[in-house]
Amino acid sequence: MEDYKLGVMEAKFAQLMWDNEPISSNELVKLCEKVLSWKKSTTYTMLRRLCDRGIFQNRDGTVTSLMSKQKFAALQSERFVEETFDGSLPQFLAAFTLRKKLSEKEIAELQRLIDENRGDS
């Protein structure tokens, strides 16, 4: 599985790009200088790192995502469950509900998701 974990600054940078895409690389540099106090070289280093990981692309001076924020979050969640609970979603939910009980609304939403994704044989 690809490494889709982001450090704190990578996550802040990715959020800026998702919130402002498409964005020219020049505008991205200005935005990062304003919001993150980064130099141009830092912005381009970080951009290259996330492009190499297949999350964003810089084509003809325009930066866009190759992966939506939602898909990225789904991949991170999948990896967490895989690494922490041996891929068992029921084990994850059991651990989650040890400290936080589910509301009736949450239970209904989970049931709806289960029904929609049930693998009928």
How would you explain this protein's 3D organization?
This protein is mainly alpha-helical and 121 residues long. It has helices at 8-20, 25-36, 40-52, 69-85, 89-99, 104-117, and strands at 23-24, 56-59, 62-65. It has a three-stranded antiparallel β-sheet with strand order 1-3-2. The protein is elongated and about 50 Å long.
Q: What's this model, at a glance?
A:
With 121 residues, the chain is mainly alpha-helical. It contains six helices and three strands, in the order αβααββααα.
Low-confidence residue ranges? none
Share of residues in strands: 5-15%
Helix content: 55-70%
Taking strands numbered 1, 2, ... along the chain, how are they ordered across the largest sheet? 1-3-2
| N-to-C SSE string, H for helix and E for strand | HEHHEEHHH
How confident is the prediction overall: mean pLDDT? 91
Give the overall shape, derived from the CA principal axes: elongated
E-strand count: 3
Instruction: Give the helix tally.
Output: 6
Radius of gyration: 19 Å
By secondary-structure content and strand pairing, the structural class works out as: mainly alpha
Cα separation of the termini:
27 Å
**Largest sheet geometry:** 3 strands, antiparallel
Topology of this structure?
Layout: H1 8-20, E1 23-24, H2 25-36, H3 40-52, E2 56-59, E3 62-65, H4 69-85, H5 89-99, H6 104-117
